[in-house]
Amino acid sequence: MDTLGAWLARLEAVHRGGMVLGLERVAEVAARLELRFSCPVFVVGGTNGKGSTCAMLESILSHAGYRVALYTSPHLVRFNERARFGQQALSDAELVDAFGAVEAVRKGVELSYFEFTTLAILHAFMQREPDVLVAEVGMGGRLDAVNLLDADCAIVTSIDIDHAQWLGDTREKIAWEKAHIFRSGRPAVCSDPAPPATLIDYANTVGADLYRFGRDFNYAGDRQQWSCAVRGKRRAGLAYPALRGANQLLNASGVLAALDAMRVRLPVPAHAIRQGLALVELAGRFQVLPGRPVTVLDVAHNPHAVAHLAANLDQMGFFPETYAVVGMLADKDVHSAVQRIASRIQFWLPCSLPGPRGLDAQAFAGKLTEAAADAKVIDCFERPALALERARELAQDDDRILVFGSFLTVSDALQSLGRT
Questions:
Q1: Are both 248 and 165 inside the same structural domain?
Q2: Nearest residue to 267 (alpha-carbon basis) of 122, 6, 66, 18
Q3: Phi, psi of 348 (to 5 degrees)
Q4: Residue 27 and residue 45: Cα distance in Å, rounded?
Q5: Would strands 83-85 and 153-156 be described as parallel, antiparallel, or unpaired?
């Protein structure tokens, strides 16, 4: 395998069977790779807000002068987006070398696509010797491959029902899974305003130093600026994060709590916080494209995230019509997601998504009419790019186009617009 594309094609072909949870296999290969980091490690989990939290951590720490390695998933357009060092994606050549290193020591151990690529990216980072590592949990926490990292500071952003068939069908069960990224005697931050008791109990059981929103940290803001207090220390006069959305202050306050908890090992000056928040970027999170009609891209794909998206749409002002290009995975709670946003949308353009988990556009349309009987469906489309093309033909300059439902939906839309 001498190209990144060849490696990814092989991994996708071999692991079409779906998700495989558990740390035994990945830990065995990690030991053979002698995978370890001497730098501080942040591990970020949660139902929603993980990507934004990771992006803010990367931006602030980078502006503080640290060489930051950032691992996130999934990617929107290019696989390399998952692996950033010094705010730049790793090259194909580095990733190919890292894939080869994993394959060389695997020796018959079966790894899932996510496990294999996680090990490869972490191996590539280890060669770079970062000052700090930020890693996003793929799903859950307890059995996710990222949990092989021994987090110096763990963050759980929010807890809601998603991936119920793997993590459980209640917030209590899901919170318990996510809490397993916490470590004994180390700071653990929870940005969820109402964390289930199972998360708190687990933190107490392992002896983590739990920072809870509303008890250990909080925020306040007006139209011009905001402030954040962490265990009695207040930062005032902060500029709002460049990431759009009302929920971003909650994510940002969790980031500042984590940085405060790590201040002895990673001191961060005030100017780095200001610059880091002001300049942070993250595609596909309430991303508003320039031009008319206004086009909004958001990877919201579960009821909790869609509810935040609906609230953010309400803050945009008046638009005569909103056209929604939407594609979701079959294992998502489409009914609840649609109910949370249907009143903001006049016209729907459902699209099919690829792969075994992708929901067919016709099937989505059926679920849509069950959840919102008066929903007006323009047509069904084979892929998001075709639906977006039709929406752009129909929408007037003063209207709004919304693209949401999955990373796959937003990815295809971005590529069709030449934003790769």
A1: yes
A2: 66
A3: -115, 140
A4: 19
A5: unpaired
> Does residue 17 have a pLDDT over 60?
no
Place of tokens 């300049």: 279
Query: Measuring CA to CA, how many Å separate 158 from each of 246, 308, 309, 392?
Result: 14, 12, 15, 34
Q: Residue 194 in contact with residue 205, Cβ under 8 Å? A: no
Q: What is the pLDDT of residues 345-365, one digit of tens each?
A: 999 999 999 988 899 999 999
Q: Which residues pair with 132 in a beta bridge?
A: 68
Cis ω before 193 (30° cut-off from 0): no
Strand 83-85 with 88-89, pairing: antiparallel
Do 24 and 141 lie in a common domain? yes
* Domain-ending residue, one of 279, 305, 333: 279
Residue 268 and residue 294 in one domain = no
Domain that residue 57 falls in: 4-279
- pTM, rounded to two decimals: 0.93
User: What's the structural domain count of the chain?
Assistant: 2
CATH number of the domain residue 10 falls in: 3.40.1190.10
Domain end among 279, 295, 317: 279
Same-domain check for residues 41 and 183:
yes
Where do we find the tokens 């990733």? 95
Let me know: does 153 contact 57? Beta carbons within 8 Å: no
Please say whether the beta carbons of 258 and 189 come within 8 A: yes
Nearest-Å Rg of the Cα atoms of the chain is 21
Helix 197-206 with 171-178: angle, nearest 10 deg: 30
What distance in Å separates the CA atoms of residue 65 and residue 144, rounded to the nearest whole number?
Answer: 30
Compute the half-sphere exposure of residue 107: CA atoms within 13 Å on the CB side of its CA. 7
187 membership: H or E segment, kind and range: strand 187-190
If you average pLDDT over residues 140-146, what whole number do you get?
Answer: 92
Beta bridge partners of 154: 43, 188
pLDDT band at 1 (very low <50, low <70, confident <90, very high): confident
Rounded distance, CA 378 to CA 347, Å?
6
